[in-house]
Design brief:
This protein is α/β, with parallel strands linked by helices and 345 residues long. 41% of the residues lie in helices and 18% in strands. The chain has helices spanning 17-30, 42-47, 80-92, 104-117, 141-162, 177-186, 200-212, 237-243, 252-264, 284-302, 334-342; strands at 4-9, 35-38, 50-53, 95-102, 121-125, 165-170, 190-192, 218-223, 244-245, 248-249, 268-272, 308-313, 316-321. The strands form three sheets. A seven-stranded mixed β-sheet has the order 3-2-1-4-5-12-13, sandwiched between helices. Strands 7-8-6-11 form a four-stranded parallel β-sheet, with helices on both faces. Strand 4, helix 4 and strand 5 (121-125) form a beta-alpha-beta unit. Helix 1 (17-30) packs parallel to helix 10 (284-302) and helix 6 runs parallel beside helix 11 (334-342). The structure holds 6-O-phosphono-beta-D-fructofuranose. Residues 12, 103, 127-129, 171-173, 224, 248-249, 278 line the site of 6-O-phosphono-beta-D-fructofuranose. 6-O-phosphono-beta-D-fructofuranose binds next to strand 10.
């Protein structure tokens, strides 16, 4: 049985994953290393849903969103039975190393699979949220920011025509990267992020001041996990439970819109961008980053750099211990948010 390099994509899908898959296969081919594609994340390794990836099966996929391998949020460490099946399939399919492309959850799982089960794993960071430690950027983020910026541009014209406050809720889990970057690019008047709890009284004051200055419309970008400051936390327990569910965030935009109407007596409309931010074709930036990370991950495998993640710092590819990455989220850089704040109000 040949020694295969396994490849899986776990967690939520994200634009750029197919470019990683293509890059891994093409770089491995140069070394005559065959690659096995594991379907639906760890689930495929448990179920034995594993097939070889060839030059032809990955041809021309770099511009497609999603992942040709499929994905799932299955955690391999949850049941002993699953771990036994992974051991069996690892042998059966002739695997001798594994590249795991995933977000925070998947990479934390990868670390544990390396530490406690001894699987030689290299991680590739993927998420639209850009919240992974150890890398300046994750692919998918630029695509999500581009989509959110276009949405803000479109909302600007209708807001201006009808003198409204437009609230745009964007994704990002526990960090406000998408909100901040798209807010700056789209010229948002206020950006609410989880890193900076907000006070609704200040928001209303700012919006009314804009009105006084003759600015009859406003754009407010709110990250899905943005929360009110404890001083002015008017959310009910029921609302908190509904909005800040760990497995499904969303709904703070509607509440902020309602508070603006009630407290500032301004007409507000709410748009939730949702999964539109994650779908469709990746930007050129994301395709290039994903390709470089895929190539770099194979080179890390060749050097035996296991238990680590490929990343980018500045212009350079880096190799970071998964221990430094797992179980945390990289908050928005303070300088970036300070720049955004200059344009508030
Ligand atoms: O982590 C990526 C992400 O898109 C988050 O921004 C969002 O909170 C979450 O995944 C949505 O997950 P799901 O696709 O399971 O609804």
């Amino acid at each position: 049985m040949e020694n295969y390099l396994g490849l899986l994509t776990g967690g939520g899908d994200c634009p750029g994953l197919n470019a990683v898959i293509r890059a891994v296969v093409r770089r491995a081919m140069q070394e005559k290393i065959p690659v096995m594609g594991i379907h639906a994340g760890w689930q495929g390794l448990i179920a034995g849903d594993i097939k070889p990836l060839t030059r032809y099966s990955v041809a021309g996929i770099q511009y497609k969103g999603g992942t040709i391998l499929g994905t799932s949020r299955r955690n391999p460490l949850e049941e002993e039975e699953g771990l036994q099946k992974i051991r069996d399939n690892w042998k059966k399919y002739g695997l001798n190393s594994l590249i795991v492309a995933g977000g925070n959850g998947t990479l934390s799982g990868a670390l544990r699979m390396w530490q406690t089960q001894g699987y030689p794993i290299v991680g590739v960071p993927k998420t639209i949220d850009n919240d992974i430690f150890g890398t300046d950027y994750t692919f998918g983020f630029d695509t999500a920011v581009t989509i959110a910026t276009e949405a803000i541009d479109r909302l600007h014209t209708t807001a201006e025509a009808q003198h409204r406050v437009m609230v745009v809720e964007v994704m990002g889990r526990h960090t406000g990267w998408i909100a901040t970057q798209a807010g700056i690019a789209g010229g948002a008047d206020i950006i609410l992020i989880p890193e900076k709890p907000f006070r609704i009284s200040q928001i209303c004051e700012m919006l009314l001041k804009r009105k006084e200055m003759g600015r009859n419309f406003s754009i407010l970008v709110v990250a899905e996990d943005a929360r009110p400051h404890p001083d002015e936390d008017y959310l009910t327990d029921e609302e908190k439970e509904r909005i800040f569910k760990e497995e499904r965030l969303g709904g703070i935009g509607a509440i902020v819109g309602r508070w603006i109407e009630e407290r500032a007596h301004l007409s507000a409309r709410v748009t939730v961008l949702g999964h539109i931010q994650r779908g469709g074709t990746p930007t050129a930036f994301d395709r290039v980053l994903a390709t470089r990370l895929g190539v770099h991950a194979v080179e890390m495998v060749l050097r035996g750099e296991f238990g680590r993640m490929a990343g980018v710092r500045g212009m350079d590819m880096v190799s970071v211990p998964l221990e430094e990455v797992a179980d945390k989220a990289k908050p928005v850089n303070a300088e970036l948010y300070r720049v955004a704040e200059i344009f508030f109000g």
